[in-house]
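Fold this: Phosphoesterase RecJ domain-containing protein
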Amino acid sequence: MAGPIPELEERATECARRLADADRVLLASHIDADGLTSAAIASQALERAGIPFETVFEKQLDADAIAEIASTEYDTVLFTDFGSGQLDEITVHEDEGAFTPIIADHHQPADSETHYHLNPLLFGIDGASELSGAGASYVLARALADVSEQPTERTMTTDGGAAAARADNRDLAALAVVGAVGDMQASGGELHGANEQIVAEGVDAGVIETSTDLALYGKQTRPLPKLLEYATDVRIPGVSGSERGALSFLDDLDLELKRTGGGDNTGTGTSTSTGDGNWRRWAELSDDEKQTVASALVKRAVSRGVPASKIDQLVGTAYVLSEEPVGTELRDASEFSTLLNATARYDRADVGLGVCLGDRDKALDRARTLLRDHRRNLSNGIELVTEEGVTHAEHVQWFHAEDRIRETIVGIVAGMAMGNAGISRSKPIIAFADKRDASGSDAPDRNDSEKREQTQDVKVSARATHSLTRQGLDLSVVMGEVARAVGGDGGGHNVAAGATVPKGEERAFVDRADELVGDQLS
Ligand code: C5P
Ligand code: C5P
Ligand code: C5P
Ligand code: ZN
């Protein structure tokens, strides 16, 4: 049977055969939306193939983490959404016979090779915009179904299509789409290349629906006024950023946009004291109503001089998980991915994995609570950066959040703040945040100066736009080279990358990065 991405087929099959030969597998994945969906895809594929496994998550796959993995009894380790960038470390353990690595990743590979390495970049597919870690894991899952010849569940129901999709793992395409969207691969409003082929399989399997729709975040769960007020990607003058503006815009439309009977029936607990809960959500509107609101938005934008190229960005492809209930975060790929980041980036990957694997009770409740905190942290972070401003070098701009923004979300904040007042979209942004001491710098018996000494490393996150990468920018190279030059390490993608460097090297880091970015863009 043909896999979704012909270029990857042969390697995926080799990796799948190796997994099928293993007595048991240690599955190691990255702690973000893409890493969680990767793990969820891989674990379901292993389970269906009857291969015993255990799952672990790592914030970063550094030398210590790899050594710990090597010290386990497992002979076969499946790395998803990381591993390529750490190949030099991994192959040391492989050569010593500690384990056989199988890697399904999309990050820039380090200068080493290993046999079971499934990465789009090795086959001419862009790992930053055409295939995510979850996408690579999906390709592997499809191959695993093939080599292990999963029995088609015999059902006498009309559910034959769904059973067939499960039998060849095509139902897992929904999670692959969430991973790709979570890694912000939907540029220009839609997914491209290999990702599109996965979308097509998901549509075919009945787990994904696509439509041309308003490209705003929160179509499933945000009350309409909030959907418009918080729309920051495309600013609509008088509406974006203004609660009153959004309310009066909606009141002026001749539509019944409040719920009759009142109350919040989505179970998402988003109703607030200002009565947001009485407003309908975008996803509940009829096509005609959506059309009316969208036209009014476009008209407002045109009349206030928003350029046509910006107005185009108001519309994009929506990826809907058709089996999930309307009005929940799980139905919209973008909201689903944010829900997952809200768990994994706060040391609760177990919660996000539970949600991906279908736990709609305890895990989902917990995830929603974490999401409220995540949103507050993002909005506080964006406010902090916007108010304090960034420092502009010639080719880059930067800020240091110290301990005021969590290192695991400082990159998301930096990306979302781009375009705000004083924060340019025509230069990459570099963000620093203190690393929290894993050994517990919060211990009450340490005084402040001791605590400060404990913070020896700084997290660096860099973000850019696809328009800059088209001009030659590659942040994974910048983060890697500059970090190594100052005694740290880093990597990632051309458009989004990160590093860890020793505290005190921030200035040197910015100077070198500024120079290298200048070279890349010249
Ligand atoms: O490690 P991983 O590849 O999963 O993480 C990619 C990160 O890069 C995500 O946090 C995503 O939000 C970010 N990103 C971005 N802008 C892009 C592409 C990715 O901020 N255009
Ligand atoms: O948190 P995550 O990296 O998944 O966010 C992806 C994108 O979703 C952000 O860049 C932003 O455009 C949007 N978002 C938002 N409001 C939130 C969370 C995410 O608009 N509360
Ligand atoms: O942590 P952050 O969201 O800034 O990461 C952006 C991208 O850079 C992710 O794809 C992440 O996996 C990668 N990264 C890396 N090495 C690091 C830090 C981040 O490859 N030391
Ligand atoms: Zn990823």
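The longest strand covers residues 208-214. The chain has three domains: 6-150+166-203, 213-257+275-369, 389-436+455-521.
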